[in-house]
Amino acid sequence: MSRPLLSLLTFLFLSIICNAFSPENPTDRKVLVLLDDLSVKSSHSLYFQSLQSRGYDLDFKLADDPRVALQRYGQYLYDALILFSPTIESLGGSLNAAAILDFVDSGHDLILAADASASDLIREIATECGVDFDEDQAAMVIDHTSFAVSDTEGDHTLIAGDNFIQSDVILGKEKIKAPVLFKGIGHSVNPANSLVLKVLSASPAAYSANPKSKLSTPPTLTGSAIGLVSVVQARNNARILISGSLSMFSNRFFRSGVQKAGSTINHGRSGNEQFVTEISKWVFHERGHLKAVNVRHHKVGEADEPSIYRINDELEYSLEIYEWSGTSWEPYVADDVQVQFYMMSPYVLKTMSTDQKGIYYTSFKVPDVYGVFQFKVEYKKLGVTSLSLAKQIPVRPFRHNEYERFITAAFPYYGASFSMMGGFFIFSLVYLYHK
Amino acid sequence: MAKSSATKDAQALFHSLRSAYAATPTNLKIIDLYVVFAISTALIQVVYMALVGSFPFNSFLSGVLSCIGTAVLAVCLRIQVNKENKEFKDLPPERAFADFVLCNLVLHLVIMNFLG
Predict the structure, then answer these.
(1) Which residue of B has its CA nearest to A402?
(2) In chain B, how many domains are there?
(3) Are B66 and A430 in contact (CB < 8 Å)?
(4) Domain that holds residue B35
(5) Do A289-400 and A21-283 have the same topology in CATH?
(6) Which residues of B touch A402 (CB under 8 A)?
(7) What is the dihedral of CA A109, A23, A49, A161, to 10 degrees?
(8) CB B62 to CB A427 under 8 A?
(9) Is residue B100, in this structure, part of any structural domain at all?
(10) Chain A touched by B64 (CB under 8 Å)
(11) What are phi and psi for residue A111, nearest 5 degrees?
């Protein structure tokens, strides 16, 4: 191979690597989309186009394609996975539920959409993420009070949901005005899993049952305990979106108008496009991804970081927090970042001041206790990546020559001791020479 | 009158004690005076600590213990040089005083170390 060609290939290869997910550039780049059949590609094209227009490289594959693979030679080929194949019973190639969960465990993102015909495989993946779909295979979410008004009376399974989570980070700053159309299955979130959040819940009057049969026993899932769309942010900051409705992402729902039952307002377009776009931005780390850099601490009036502190030292602690905006790191502004000075339990807990440019700083006095302490920042807030920083620092007691000498309050004691010595001398003289 | 008789008894007791003490040899009286001086200095420091607080606690301890130690050593000397004490009649008073001086030196060495 000639040299110019080789260097060109190296350059291309490097540029591919540099575009992939990295701590410096956390937005996903390459996304694998697994579909039941390729018609979904056109029926959901608006959603896929919105992703492509934001720079994602979508790779469409049939879910049972035998060549489909998430990794090759131990390297993941994709940064995120969109699973729009609710009916698939077994995935193609070497892919299975465990492989998808491994993908998530290694910090990659997942969007999963189920449907009324959701397969056991899809349910299993959702369950592993803390989302339990209704076990009744034929059940759908039915709501007789907040369904979307349509020409035919219908069975009220097309829901106009507006019970959103209150979070600017997850759903964007702009309020979603129109209700979101949803037609699919409901889920409950595992109460033991603290990482999963319901983003869109059903109305208090909703229930999950088979719309075609008569309701003979009370439904197991009722009211706002039903989640329609949920997200998970794992401890490794991998993000997962689980929706009970694939049609929520479809062009038909994007373009459709919506009028909620009992309301006179007829929205020309449903909130689906805004809702789905904003939440995809969050899942693909365009929002709410933090990094902390330049963690510093030093004594007041000094610049160098000491290897050890003494009890009662005054110290200053600072760090910088930036949020990824999708293209660059922007200063993160909040007033609730706290630092702990920690040894088994926090001895000092201080809320840090910020200069609004990403720098957080505070100063405090080392407690009157020596031992091995840690500077800890545990920042866990709804929607943003959790920051967990710990830096170990020992604290020593006073050296012997660092104690205060000649304390005024102790002068009487000094006086007494010396008068005892003088007294001893005089007593000895008097005792020896009397008479 | 019960009260006046009690007062009279106390006076009589006090007089008898005083006349008995007057017979004490002078060297023992000097030691007694020295002990009273040490104890009262210790009491003054305790009262001062109660008022000011125990902050330089090591200084307080060394101040008080130097007084108590001195008093204890002086009492030991008094026992050994008392002629009426048959137990120590073989011990010469010079030896007793030398012991007293040595112990005092050790005591004040320790006190000086602990005072600062």
Answers:
(1) B116
(2) 1
(3) no
(4) 25-115
(5) no
(6) none
(7) 50
(8) no
(9) yes
(10) yes
(11) -115, 125
Report the residue of chain A nearest B51, measured CA to CA.
A409
Q: What is the tens place of the pLDDT at every residue in A370-379?
A: 999 999 999 9
Question: What are the chain A neighbours of B42 within 8 Å (beta carbons)?
Answer: 416
Interface size between A and B, measured as CB pairs under 8 A: 75
Put simply, whether B31 touches A (Cβ < 8 Å) is: yes
Domain ranges in chain A are: 21-283, 289-400, 406-433
pLDDT tens digits, A292-337: 999 999 999 999 999 999 999 999 999 999 999 888 899 999 999 9
Q: Do residue B70 and residue A409 have CB atoms under 8 angstroms apart?
A: no
H-type alpha helices, A208-339: 251-255, 272-283
Chain B CB contacts of A405 under 8 Å are: 116
Looking at domain A21-283, its CATH class is: alpha beta
- A299 DSSP β-pair partners: A315
In DSSP notation, A203-216 reads: -TT-EEE-TTS---
Within 8 A by CB and 6+ apart from A338, the residues are: A349, A350, A351, A352, A377, A378, A379
Looking at beta carbons, which residues of chain B come within 8 Å of A410?
55-56, 59-60, 63
Cβ neighbours around B76 below 10 Å, total? 14
Residue-wise pLDDT for B34-43, tens only, equals 999 999 999 9
pLDDT category at A17 given cuts 50, 70, 90 is very low
The closest of B107, B60, B68, B70 to A413, measured between CA atoms, is B60
B55 domain-assigned:
yes
Architecture in CATH of A289-400: Sandwich (2.60)
Backbone angles phi, psi at A310, to 5 degrees: -105, 150
